Amino acid sequence: MSGYVRALAEAAREAQAVIAALDADARTRLVAAMADAVDADRVAILAANAQDLQRARDAGTGGAMLDRLRLDDARLDGVVKALREIAALPDPVGQVTRSEVRADGLRIERVRVPLGLVAMIYEARPNVTADATALCLKSGNAVILRGGSEALASNCAIAASLRRALRECGLPEAALVLIEDPAREHVLELLQLTDLVDLAIPRGGEGLIRFVAEHARVPVIKHYKGVCHLYVDRAADVALATRLLLDGKASRPGVCNALETLLVHAEVAEVFLPGALAALAARGVEVRGDARVRALWPGAQAASEADYAAEFLDLVIAVRVVDSLEDALAHIRRHGSDHTEVIATADAAAAEAFVRGLRSSAVMVNASSRFNDGGELGLGAEIGISTTRLHAYGPMGLESLTIERFVVRGAGHVRHPDLLD
Amino acid sequence: MSGYVRALAEAAREAQAVIAALDADARTRLVAAMADAVDADRVAILAANAQDLQRARDAGTGGAMLDRLRLDDARLDGVVKALREIAALPDPVGQVTRSEVRADGLRIERVRVPLGLVAMIYEARPNVTADATALCLKSGNAVILRGGSEALASNCAIAASLRRALRECGLPEAALVLIEDPAREHVLELLQLTDLVDLAIPRGGEGLIRFVAEHARVPVIKHYKGVCHLYVDRAADVALATRLLLDGKASRPGVCNALETLLVHAEVAEVFLPGALAALAARGVEVRGDARVRALWPGAQAASEADYAAEFLDLVIAVRVVDSLEDALAHIRRHGSDHTEVIATADAAAAEAFVRGLRSSAVMVNASSRFNDGGELGLGAEIGISTTRLHAYGPMGLESLTIERFVVRGAGHVRHPDLLD
């Protein structure tokens, strides 16, 4: 370990104390100033992005990766809009979540405070540089960013704008640290700084997330993948179930809250599957099914066992007929990733059994899996989705970047007054 | 890895689904039955404890360690009473912490669910076997216990009682696993089971906690030590400050919420220190101070730099005179352990600056550090105190053994209705 990252983290921790001590209005102004700065620096940011894109093309990068890397005016509009929305969110810091006064007059409050220093390790999308910084600073934290080397010029340009906003607000620039040196040892050093880094959040492909989880000594909140299920119960409304299926699979197949597996109760398979699978196929979705599925809909390919654990992130779905709700639960427990599961049913008892029977971070009754999203679920914005069953489970908003601590106020209260005689 | 612990953990995970699916009354009855079982099995438990004590004496163990290990009827009364109190606590599982209905009718709830499988790694005190099991099962979790080898017979006897209660309630015994084989490799295996163990909580000396933190791939919540500070502000009431000092240092010096360092504003040092330090000395406390302290109270020894970071857990205190509240904050930030800090002051602005200026899990204004305890702060019982700034910060009660997840109910709600045309 070179100590290079430790020095950056120490500076960030000092700056964090300043950010945390601001009042809510000052943090709102800071994030609004960041929006203004990015808006004003479009030319420089797009020029930097053009360098990254050229380098990526020269290296033979194509398709989806190149698209994730790409910024244009419309996408920068989106970044600026997101920053303004984050600025306008309610500030969680200092919020008193519980307050009680004991019979002896001792007042016990639980108060939200920032986590401290958050490390983000991410790939490709340069907008994360702005989003993550805004969410962390709005909630009184400092942030250390480590983006992918493919987006280095874009990330540096965006970080320069964000730091200008810090400077213009009279605040320490070290509250935002971007590790610019691409050497991997710096990530390893960052992940060992247990005395300085309070939380690491990896965002990107499964490889990146596993790398962070395996090497971190600091706490990590992550999700590996979203293998999301729709279970169509025997008491399902077929039209409603079809809506959920199409929205879940075909509206945006590349995201983690898209459906990957459809489980259908045997009693409705015959009335539901042919129409539903035809509608999927009409939208370009490849269907992989077990023998019972293929008997009802010959357009299906044979599903392998691996298909039932796959996060396709594509226009592909695995389908299975099950004989009971219990079999559906057993399938999901075995193959699921604790992300999002959906039941379509008109039977309240079946819905309740489904909700209670699963550990997943979000369970939807007669609603699309695509609602598992911080914006949709009322968090305003999200810094990630957690399938780590600790601290935060599901979409993580500003509150997830804080922790409740105890503030106790007395008038000389002691536990052993006899000792004072 | 032998796979021995993995098999136990898999069985515990299956049993956990059964415990989680119980209603609150059934979990209350289970923990009450555990109290009855321990109460009924006193003879066997005390006989087992006598074996542990004999073995410890033969090995030359003495003093505090032997005392922590020892059970007698009065201590078993305490264990039974604690179990009954845990049985009577409100059940957090299924609690709806937030509920909102969107304009489009989609209902979004956050609901508390158990963490899953909790691993406790602890030393000496056999009562942890009962307390931890009761807290975990009451909150719908399963538990894997790994106690110290010095208490193995006692822990086995208590676990046998607790399992009898599970059996009598018709519940799977595997919801409580005690790793009886003392080989250390089993702990290492336990700490690697990221797919099965949701949280590990170490309780014991700093060595044990560091071992767990360094080897765990599963999430860990811990506190290394409690270096708790009392800052006597220039606006402090001297008599009130003396009360807090005596209660914090002399009422029970061996616990983590006892005071270790006293910081005194220079403007009150002359009126406060001589009387306060004499009162400490009268209660057998050794005072180690800087030059300004020793000038005011010659009974003090010279404090070393290490004394200001020490968790004495004994009748020893480090004392320093500071020139300002800011100097006190800087001292605490440098030497503190984020556990508990106290200010004595009549100045509301100083109190506020102290609270805001510190990261600690509990900050006390004119109240003793000894109140940082789950029972005192209204949690009913605690499974530990966290200085990990994630998930729980401060005393951890039943709620800290749960996590909020999202349950969403719609009527066929989708994000992209246009896709359905």
From TrEMBL, chains A, B:
Cell compartments where the protein resides: Cytoplasm
GO biological process, one term: L-proline biosynthetic process
Pfam families: Aldedh
Name by which UniProt lists this protein: Gamma-glutamyl phosphate reductase
tRNA processing among keywords: no
Entry keywords, A to Z: Amino-acid biosynthesis, Cytoplasm, NADP, Oxidoreductase, Proline biosynthesis
Catalytic function, reaction form: L-glutamate 5-semialdehyde + phosphate + NADP(+) = L-glutamyl 5-phosphate + NADPH + H(+)
